[in-house]
Structure formats: structure tokens, C-alpha cells
Design a protein that fits this description.
The protein is of the alpha/beta class and 184 residues long. Helix content is 36%, strand content 19%. The chain has one domain: 3-Layer(aba) Sandwich (Rossmann fold). The radius of gyration is 19 Å and the shape is globular. The structure holds adenosine-5'-triphosphate (ATP) and magnesium ion (MG).
Length: 184
């Protein structure tokens, strides 16, 4: 009798066929609005994982410029053609959301040393709350390493030209929100 075929850990046997589980990463943030640093991280995720779920945090305390729906719509406009990307919103604990969507890795972007302290604490707290979850960090292209949503909004509102830092769909939305402001 021949030995049983080896199955990768976690693989699902379906009849005679073996399906490997899809590798899903969750990329959480407030994304108010999405910018090219975020898109850079999403593309890097897609080179490592099969699917990326962008998890838009509902946090009204941050006084967002864009509603949750608008932020999700922007992602759909930018990445809607890519079936490997999904967008959902969540509130409450990220680790509980990770259980609901049955994902293991949280992906976070690291721009500079200044991000490290907060991200380190958050990763360890999340691990303590849910040991099943892992946090992975990715670095963006150097040209986006100073970019944040806050800075992009601030520069735009003061008349700065931020094309090249946000996708055109986001630039158009910023013009709608703040008419006669941005320099491009
Ligand atoms: N320029 C960037 N390059 C790489 N990762 C980034 C960049 N900006 C943000 N991120 C990462 O994206 C995730 C979501 O961050 P967040 O929504 O807070 O964006 P942000 O640009 O920092 O916005 P805000 O200025 O409102 O804090 C985090 O993991 C954050 O580190
Ligand atoms: Mg931030």
C-alpha cells in the first residue's frame, strides 16, 4: 500500500482535490483619506498574500473629514477592479474583527522611527488580547515615508499641490470637500 499523500498544514481536503486556504491579510487604519503611502503598502501586501482586506476604523473622536462610506467608496474607485482587495469598516477591538474575518496577519506600515514606539506597543497589546493574531510591518517607498493623511489634508487646505501624493480620485474628492483650496 502506498503512503498517504502529504498535505500542507491547514489544507482542506475536498474529495480527491486539496485546496490550500487563501492567505488573507488585514490592513487596518482610518484612511481619512487614502493616499499613495497606503496604496504602496497594499501593493506590497499583494505580493505576499493572496488577498488584502482593508479595514476602515470607525473612530468619530478623530473628527474625520470623510465619512466611513466615503472612505470605502474611494478605495472602491481606486482598487475596485482588483478582486484580491476587499474593504470593510469596523469598530471596537481590531483583534475581535480579526476573529470575525478569520485572518491571522495584521499589516501595518512603518514610515520612520517615530511610528515604531506606538506600533510596538499596539502589536504587543494585540498579541496579549489575542495570541492567534500576528502583526507584520512593511516599509513604503522612501518618497512616501513622510506622508500621512493629516499632512496631505493640511497641505491641500493651505493651497499646496499634493498631486503625486494622493490618487486622482482622492484629489477630486478633496476639491469637492474644500473648494478653491488645493494647488492642483
Ligand atoms: N506614508 C505611509 N507609508 C506607509 N505606511 C503608511 C503611510 N501612512 C500611513 N501608513 C500606515 O497605514 C496604516 C493606516 O494609517 P492611518 O490611517 O493612520 O494613516 P495616516 O496617513 O497615518 O493618517 P493620519 O495622519 O490620520 O494618522 C498604518 O499602518 C500606518 O502606519
Ligand atoms: Mg496615522
Amino acid at each position: 500500500m502506498s503512503p498517504a499523500p502529504q498535505m500542507p498544514a491547514g489544507a482542506l481536503p475536498v474529495g480527491a482535490v486539496t485546496l490550500s486556504p487563501r492567505r488573507l491579510a488585514v490592513y487596518p487604519g482610518s484612511f481619512d483619506p487614502p493616499h499613495n503611502g497606503h496604496l504602496d503598502i497594499i501593493q506590497r501586501c499583494l505580493s505576499v498574500f493572496d488577498e488584502v482586506l482593508i479595514a476602515v476604523l470607525v473612530n468619530e473622536e478623530k473628527k474625520p473629514l470623510f465619512t466611513i462610506e466615503e472612505r470605502q467608496e474611494m478605495f472602491h474607485e481606486i482598487l475596485g477592479g482588483d478582486s484580491r482587495v476587499r474593504v470593510e469598516s469596523f469598530s471596537g477591538l481590531l483583534v475581535d474583527f480579526m476573529d470575525r474575518v478569520d485572518a491571522v496577519p495584521i499589516v501595518r506600515g512603518l514610515r520612520a522611527l517615530s511610528d515604531f514606539d506606538y506600533e510596538f506597543q499596539m502589536a504587543l497589546m494585540n498579541r496579549r488580547l489575542n495570541p492567534r493574531v500576528e502583526t507584520l510591518f512593511m516599509m513604503p517607498k522612501e518618497e512616501y515615508s513622510y506622508l500621512s493623511s493629516r499632512l496631505a489634508k493640511e497641505a491641500f487646505s493651505l493651497g499646496g499641490n499634493i498631486s503625486g501624493l494622493v490618487p486622482p480620485q482622492v484629489l477630486a474628492r478633496l476639491h469637492e470637500k474644500m473648494p478653491n483650496r488645493g494647488g492642483a
